[in-house]
Every structure is written in structure tokens, then in C-alpha cells.
């Protein structure tokens, strides 16, 4: 009798265990949505916007500038599997235009089409991308917030503040002392930053597409540099340093590093504030 009851109890326990395992398997978390961005700065904003509720991938490698993107077979596979794709503009990732023109664009966000602030470039400035806009919009926190809100709306998520008004006020106060100072940058990418924080426009060696300027432009830059005496030359991780080193030696101006693409920033809920904190510190190092 005891043996029979024992076997019955064991069988019941086994059946309940199977049922529990089945229920637990049925309660697995749903697969996260996939957001794919063309460049790292967009992924930084996306990561801050979704707060871990979606997976973030980007096409740009650490060896590429934001202007050097080309599609590989793995890039195409990644884009094809995305629930949401984000790019800057046809004028920015212009090597990708044929791909985007040939695909369904219902899950595509083109940041340049959103309601952002677009400061004009210097009079007469030209680039292969655009004659009127500096497209590095993410260097203005208000513009980054516009994209973050659009991402949240597309994915039906609650909008989050990726940088508080208090943080922006602190940065404005910190940067006030540099409003009359000038920097020489490697690449014309900073008008959104200088506009947002009321700083003098940077002198630049290359145009907004990262392309080398002509001889006449280089002569004008040298003449301006002699008059304005920049505090430093800001160089970026993925651009050739030769021009900057020559100018540094010629003008006795120090070289400092700045990363407007956030290549070293870890993607996560605080990605944008981490990026901007590092960027501000790099800018301030020009005057130290």
C-alpha cells in the first residue's frame, strides 16, 4: 500500500514539474525590437530614448568617420531585419542613397526631416553635402531630444528626457567664459554646438563633409588663424593628423583631441548624457 501511494505521489510530482516547466517557458520575455542606425551618434540618442526597451545596432565601424559609410552584405542583412532604421540625411550618408531609395521607407526616420534647429554655415561655405546646413545636429541637445521623441513615438514608448534643462543650464554657465575664445577644428561640424551655447564659430581645416579644402581656402585659414590666435587645434579620431600637425608647428598652437561621434561611449540609458559630458570636457581641454 505504501509503495503504491509513493509511486502515485512521485508521478503527480513529475506531472506538476512538467506543467511548471511548460508555463515558465511560455512566460519568456518577448523579443526586443531592433533599431539600426547608420552612425554611432544616432545610436547614442536611440539608446537614451528607449531606456533598454529595444536592441540598438549601428553600421559605422570605429575605423570609419560618419561620412565614410558603405554598405556591406552584413550591413544589408542588419538593415533588413530592423524594426526601425534611423539615418541623418540623403546629403550625409550619400553612399547609401540607392539602397534607401529602393526599400520600403515606412520604418525609416530621416533626422534631417524633423523639426530641428538648423544654423546656417558661414557665408559662402560649400560642401558636397549641403550649402546651407551643418548636419551634425546631435551636438545641440535640443535637436537630440527631437529625435529621441520621434523614436519613442514610433515605438509607442513613453518619452524620456535624455538631457534635463538643469544639465543644459549647467553647461551653458560653464561655457560662458569661452564665448570670446576661438578654436581651430579639423572638420566643419560644430555649428550646432556653438549656436546652442552661444560660442564663436570654430575655424576649420576641412569642410562639413570632412573633405580637404583647396589651396586658396587653406591660405585664408592661415591668415585668419594668425589674426584670431586660436587656443588649440581640435583633432578627431578618424581623420588624418598631418594637416593639424603642420599647422600646430607653424603657429605654435597645441593639439587637443575631441570626439563628436562618441566612438568610446557605451550604449545604454545614459548614453547621451555620457557623450555630452565627455564632449564638453574635451572642448574645455582646448583652453587648459
Q: Helical residue percent?
A: 40-55%
Unreliable stretches covering 5 or more consecutive residues = 121-132
Kindly, what is the distance between the CA atoms of the first and last residues, rounded to a whole number of angstroms? 89 Å
Given the C-alpha coordinates, what overall shape results?
A: globular
What is the alpha-carbon Rg in Å?
25 Å
Count the domains: 1
Query: Structural class of the helices, strands and pairings?
Result: alpha/beta
CATH fold-level label: Rossmann fold
Q: CATH class, please?
A: Alpha Beta
How would you write the strand order of the largest sheet? 2-1-3-4
Q: What is the string of helix and strand elements?
A: HEHEHEHEHHEHEHEHEH
CATH level-4 homologous superfamily: Nitrogenase molybdenum iron protein domain
Strand element count: 8
Average pLDDT for all residues: 84
For the record, the CATH architecture stands as 3-Layer(aba) Sandwich
The number of helical segments is 10
Strand content: 5-15%
Largest sheet: 4 strands, parallel
Amino acid at each position: 500500500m505504501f509503495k503504491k501511494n509513493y509511486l502515485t505521489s512521485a508521478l503527480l510530482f513529475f506531472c506538476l514539474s512538467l506543467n511548471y516547466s511548460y508555463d515558465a517557458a511560455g512566460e519568456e520575455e518577448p523579443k526586443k525590437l531592433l533599431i539600426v542606425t547608420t552612425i554611432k551618434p544616432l545610436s547614442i540618442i536611440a539608446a537614451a530614448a528607449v531606456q533598454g526597451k529595444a536592441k540598438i545596432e549601428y553600421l559605422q565601424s570605429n575605423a570609419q568617420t560618419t561620412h565614410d559609410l558603405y554598405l556591406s552584405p552584413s550591413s544589408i542583412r542588419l538593415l533588413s531585419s530592423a524594426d526601425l532604421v534611423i539615418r541623418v540625411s540623403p546629403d550625409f550618408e550619400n553612399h547609401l542613397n540607392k539602397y534607401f531609395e529602393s526599400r520600403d521607407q515606412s520604418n525609416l526616420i530621416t533626422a534631417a526631416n524633423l523639426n530641428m534647429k538648423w544654423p546656417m554655415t558661414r557665408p559662402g561655405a560649400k560642401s558636397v553635402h549641403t550649402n546651407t546646413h551643418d548636419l551634425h545636429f546631435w551636438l545641440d541637445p535640443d535637436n537630440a531630444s527631437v529625435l529621441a521623441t520621434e523614436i519613442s513615438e514610433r515605438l509607442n514608448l513613453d518619452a524620456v528626457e535624455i538631457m534635463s534643462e538643469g544639465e543644459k543650464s549647467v553647461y551653458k554657465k560653464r561655457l560662458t567664459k569661452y564665448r570670446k575664445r576661438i578654436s581651430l577644428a579639423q572638420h566643419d561640424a560644430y555649428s550646432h554646438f556653438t549656436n546652442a551655447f552661444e560660442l564663436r564659430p570654430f575655424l576649420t581645416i576641412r569642410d562639413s563633409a570632412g573633405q580637404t579644402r583647396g589651396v586658396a581656402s587653406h591660405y585664408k585659414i592661415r591668415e585668419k588663424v594668425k589674426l584670431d590666435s586660436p587656443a588649440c587645434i581640435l583633432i578627431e579620431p578618424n581623420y588624418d593628423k598631418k594637416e593639424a600637425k603642420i599647422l600646430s608647428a607653424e603657429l605654435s598652437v597645441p593639439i587637443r583631441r575631441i570626439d563628436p561621434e562618441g566612438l568610446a561611449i557605451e550604449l545604454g540609458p545614459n548614453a547621451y548624457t555620457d557623450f555630452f559630458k565627455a564632449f564638453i570636457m574635451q572642448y574645455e581641454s582646448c583652453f587648459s
